[in-house]
Amino acid sequence: MTLMRLTRACAVLLACTGFSTVALAHNPMCECKEIPGEQIQCKGGFSDGSGAPGVTLDVIGYDETILVPGKLGEDSTLTFKKPSAEFYVLFDAGPGHVVEIDQADIQPQ
Description:
single chain; 109 residues; alpha+beta; Immunoglobulin-like; four-stranded mixed β-sheet; four-stranded antiparallel β-sheet; 16% helix; signal
């Protein structure tokens, strides 16, 4: 390889590294627990420690009806009355960022 080609190859490699980006994965996380007064409290966020205010969190019956439509508050939580029907919680922060929590997995505080 001539010096000119080597120099050009090095320049191309350096230019390409300037365009690369670091992809930091942040997986969705959601935890729900029973609290006093027949209430359920859910807190959502991401594995990088960031919160999820405004993210959709719906309570859905096993027949796929939305029992409690909701969005997480500024503190990334949502509290709702425990439905009498069987249900699951759907934390939906967009494609690839969905968490489902079945009622059987929700334990008292």
